[in-house]
Amino acid sequence: MRDTQLSASATKEMEESYKNTWSWLMKEFDGHTIALLSSGWGDGFNAGYIGYDKEGKIGWLVTDFGMIGGGVK
User: Which of 38, 35, 55 has its CA nearest to residue 46?
Assistant: First the structure.
């Protein structure tokens, strides 16, 4: 039940930032901040990767939208 409520709440909040084909939201959840975003095409989920600096702290976040690959030469 809680996951369904969180999803519905986040979806509604993301609508407030909607721009042509995409939206985003930074949301506090259980003492952490999560970044939510849409790809704009409604084609499912995209992988996110976190990179750490030499001190073990988060240095960057990369989201793979699957835009390059397959037929690209």
Answer: 38
| Rounded Cα–Cα distance for residues 47 and 65 (Å) | 7
- Model pLDDT for residues 32-73, shown as the tens digit of each residue: 888 887 766 666 667 788 899 999 998 988 887 777 766 555
8 A C-beta contact, residue 14 and residue 38? yes
Please state whether the predicted TM-score (pTM) of the whole model is above 0.85.
Answer: no
Q: Shortest CA distance to 43 belongs to which of 14, 67, 68?
A: 67
- The residue ranges of every structural domain in the chain are 2-64
Half-sphere exposure of 51 (CA within 13 A, CB side): 6
